[in-house]
Amino acid sequence: MNEHRMQILQMLSAGQITAEEAERLIAALENGRSSGSSDEPAEPAPKARPKYLRVLVEAQEHDHTGGPTKVNVRVPMQLLRAGVKLTSLIPAQARDQVNVALRKQGVQFDLNQIKPENLEEIIDQIGDLTVDVDDKHAKVRVFCE
Amino acid sequence: MIPLLAFVSFRNQRSCGFRLWIPLFLAWLLLLPLALLLLPLFFVLCAVGEVNAFQALATLWQILTGLKGTYIEVAERQASVLIHTF
User: Fold this and answer.
1) pLDDT per residue as tens digits for the range A43-88
2) pLDDT for A105 beyond 80
3) A74/B69 Cβ within 8 A
4) Cα-Cα-Cα-Cα dihedral of B38, B42, B43, B44, to 10°?
5) Has residue B67 got a pLDDT over 80?
6) In this predicted structure, which of A17-26, A117-126, B35-44 has the lowest mean pLDDT?
7) How far is the CA of A74 from the CAs of A50, A87, A122, A133, B80, in angstroms?
8) Contacts of B62 in chain A (CB under 8 A)
9) Which of chain A's termini has less CB crowding within 10 Å, N or C?
10) What is the C-alpha to C-alpha distance for residues A53 and B38, in angstroms, rounded to an integer?
11) pLDDT value of position B70
């Protein structure tokens, strides 16, 4: 067991780092050793936050007359964040009315349970979202970049 | 930052279409006095609707600044539309 790994395990036992951080450091250490890089264990690069939501659609007419219809949309993530914050501006009375209308349609959903911090987390996780639909009539791709 | 320029392109099979660069920064300058005039009315409406006016203003500003970089293109054989903000 080499010296660097011992240091990481000692830091873990002393409570200076968490188990997840220790695992990442050991993995980075092993990656650095396998690629022949420097002796210092490198911290894994932070995950870049996506800036745009892309939607690409290419649809062919059913009778294949004419060219395909193409849709290319790029929406800044900041716009999405600002848009979901609009839900926090809905007055309480309006939210109750919306909840009643949703229940009438059979949708058991409570707008009052939506909180801005939950929406922020959803927006952050959208960065990992990828949708690929490949049909003989249409291709749809949704992803973040 | 708010978008300062917009590019709009429209193509139609029947006509040659058009391409237009829109100086949004001039539009914002022209709309600013109007926005200031309507601000008291906005606060009144927010008070009536039990909405935090400052929070609403902040959200509207975030929406405006979030528009920068928006790219929308729809193209088919007969027509195409492109909107891009810078």
Assistant:
1) 555 566 788 889 999 887 655 556 788 899 999 988 888 887 777 7
2) yes
3) yes
4) 100
5) yes
6) A117-126
7) 12, 22, 19, 18, 16
8) 78, 81-82, 85
9) N
10) 33
11) 92
> Region B14-37: what's the mean pLDDT?
89
Task: Collect all residues of chain B within an 8 Å Cβ-Cβ radius of residue A78.
Answer: 62, 65-66
Does B51 sit within 8 Å of A70, measured CB to CB? no
Instruction: Print burial letters for A78-104: b (CB count within 10 Å at least 16), e (below 16).
Output: bbbbbbbbeeebbeeeeeeeebeeeee
**3 state SS of A38:** coil
**Cβ pair B41, A53 in contact under 8 A:** no
Which residues in chain A have Cβ-Cβ distances shorter than 8 Å to B77? 66-67, 69
Of all residues in chain A, the one with the smallest CA distance to B50 is A91
Backbone φ/ψ region at B18: left (φ over 0), alpha (ψ -120 to 50), beta: beta
Looking at the predicted structure, is the pLDDT value of residue A129 above 90?
Answer: no
What is the radius of gyration, based on Cα positions, of chain B? 17
Token output for A71: 């849709």
| Cβ within 8 Å, pair A71-B62 | no
Both structure tokens of A90: 């809905």
